[in-house]
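Structure Section — protein described below
Tokens — whole-number codes for backbone shape
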Amino acid sequence: MSSPTGASDPVKRLVVGISGATGVRYATRILELARAHGGVETHLVMSPSGVLNVRHELGLGRQAVHALADHVHSFRDVGAVLASGSFRTAGMVVAPCSMRTLAAVAHGLSDNLITRAADVTLKERRRLVLMVRETPFNLAHLRNMTAVTEMGGVVFPPLPAFYLRPATLDDLIDHTVCRVLEFFDIFVPGPRWEGLDEPGIHHPQGAGAA
């Protein structure tokens, strides 16, 4: 399989960062769906706080998450292949992205492998998606999100889509993850909006009015 990052690449490489914010299930689901899709080589980096959240939110150990990725890199290894633009990738997603990680990316602080890989992704004009997790936002958060957007990154808070009438938490997660993967031209089966004319959908009076 040829990658859009170069004809000689045998697979599409996707970098996945897990930082210290709530929502680590988004990252593990990205890894699961990328593997099921095939033709995608995943590269995982987890921060120490990300590891803590994996244990707290999912009841999993570090190795269980490592097993979902094709390659795992140390958070402190700023000499890893991900730290160089010559290592071609389809891009990077940070899921979840803490406000600390967002700030470091916004200000070019390549002080660990997640922020360095994100910096490389931006400088090489590749796709960077930050699934930011915090609420409410303060002015520093908003300014940092603006800075990342101006540099070409995508700020993607994992907001639930209730218009799809999700029956389970997994339905909510899969809808968001499918949308994120599409930024990297990775298309997987999942819930998508089909329009109000879909059979079985009730049209409330005045639907569509502003």
